Protein 1
Amino acid sequence: MIQDYQCNRVFFSALLRDCCPKTFHGLTSALDIHGVTWSLLSGTRDIWCRDYMPLQIYPGKLAGYRYYPDYLLRNERDKATITDTELVCRMNGLRCDSSLASVVLDGGNVVKADGRVIMTSKVFEENPGVDLSWFIDHFERTVGAHMVVLPWDSNEEFGHSDGICRYIGNDRVLMTNYADFDTKMAVRFRRALEAHFEKVEELEFNSGKVHKYSWAYINWLQTEQVLIIPSFGIPEDSQALEQISRLMPEYAGSIEQVDASDLVIHGGCFNCCSWTIRDEQTYNLP
């Protein structure tokens, strides 16, 4: 399975440009500086393209799944925002297979980690009646990675693992400052991760009262060439940058901070609003 640090091309929903112009300009400018190709996806119904775009197993193979999140089924207005992944792929010249078509999934609940994928158990809640052992085996065989399952914090309706942790290489995972919001859940996450990784780090801040957006630093945009971390005009910005820079020295000189204030108010951040792939020109992309 292609890892975040191997990706060299970024896609955004075309809706992001008008919905969050400050974030859009900041991200695309940072990508341009580091020579990363980016494109816009037409045919999307919301800005969170990570959730509905396919998983890249290797260059030339995109595994599609069923994007039908329960949190968008509450009313017709929300339901109308569910993007048709197959249509978007066709409209944008992408070839996507249906190897995971029987699986209801959000891409934001897939954190790639060198032979592993970190997911919350929310994925099981969205596939009721499916045999658990078959589900895990089918998913793992398709993506070629072992499933690491975190408990789902049911107080957080999305259940996305990319708001909890990210892989930082060398068998290490970095957790967000979840302990500032729910100590017990943070302990449960740590225990689950420690069973599969050599080292689990946590972001920590000493700026007094915890800021409501401080969780989002973990939701960065990562490619082979650059790591883009959000900023919000708060003291935690510099602390997050210092910690992440220290833990990921391979990005020395290639870490950017971009203002995400007009994006995070919608409930997500940089990983959520981007879709990254490894493009080796093995198939025709726009």
Note: Confidence is low (pLDDT under 50) at residues 282-286.
Protein 2
Amino acid sequence: MIKNIVFDFGNVIIKWDTNAILEKYNVNDEEFRILKTVIFESEEWLQLDEGVINAQQAEEIFKGKAPENLKSQVKEIMDSWFEKVEFYQEVCAFIRELKGKGFGVYGISNTNIQFYEYMKRSEVGGYFDGFVISAVEKMMKPDEKIFGRLFEKFSLNPRECFFVDDTEKNILAGRRCGMDGFVFSIDRIQELKRRIYGQSEE
């Protein structure tokens, strides 16, 4: 019987689209291209998610790579990019519904400390019973150890958990650890609801 729902963040609770984020800043087409390459497409951005470097270190590296006229833009983006992310309101409403029905709600995400802290402070973040975050744990999906960390940290039985992620390899890793799951996209939310409610009643 399913008692706990485990959510990824990117393209599950939020729309992860760096173009949409950068479009909210006052930059021209060339500046857009440079900033996307320097920040979001960099090796250091992945290192933020891995917990290898922190946001301050990343910002200094990005400034070093950016032209002089864009250094202030780098700082502005690093100070506020997470506030520009779009939440899927239908998913947020579903999380509130799940919590109201007595399900445990957990998050497991390959993300950095900046977004994790923002997520915790958000309205939907208040419905979560706990989080396992790659930058904190220094491990990333689909490494099975991060799922083990989730079960251990919150004393969860994998057989009672259901995992929602947008990437099949992560769902398969969760299944190897005993947790069933669903490869999500926003157009499949009604299918997800049927799966969860159907399995919770078995």
Note: The mean pLDDT is 97.
Protein 3
Amino acid sequence: MQQEITRADHPLIKQTASLKEKKYRERFGEFLVEGELSVLWALQSSYVINTVFYADDYTLPQQISENLVDIPTYRVPTHLLAKMADTKTPQGIVCTCAFRETPPLPQKGRFIYCDQVRDPGNLGSILRSADALGYDGVMLSPLCVDPFNPKLVRSTMGSLFHISLYTDIDLESLKTMQKGGFQLAVSSLTETSISLGDFAPEENLIIVVGNESKGVSKPVTEAADVVVKIPMAGSAESLNVAAAAAILMYEANAGRLS
């Protein structure tokens, strides 16, 4: 199904280029993926791929071409590929993926919950860590950064396509999961915080990390079953949220890793 597009005003070129902005991702119900490895991971995932574009000076690797059956694929001039891509030096291939519906609230498992995390790089790192450490999914509060921001998609290094993502999970949803048997463990420095070394994670667990400057919101902290702090020997006041999340997830899952 490979075709050629040469016009900058072609509707598909214009639509794909617009996906760098959230309002157009929401309008068209799809997001942009760029780069050879990221496109391959997308093609091999359960996401529906709407379109693939590659530059006329780019050679499709066999691993990608064999996954393009029944997917509309377009060869375009290099300058049009650059128009669609988000990076200054694109790798020659991009694709668009349809959004998936947020899955229903889980009944069991281990998850990381991001409460108003705003930086794409931080959220991308958290997704990668959750994937690497065997977590069942990443949950995002309503005010988190858009997980389909092109920078974030790139920063996950494919983990976006490997792990369950739950968006717009509010406090009431967390409380519903608590009632269903989940332990809610908030990372925060309060008078009641216990050291990470004293934390006893339960089988069904939600670890909560917060906003880069404000931390976990007060209502979520007040709902916690346990508030945990990471002991620090140096002079730093706090850890980057992505680093803190990785430490918390690793320690909670240490007995499960081999």
Note: Residues 120-132 form the longest helix (13 residues).
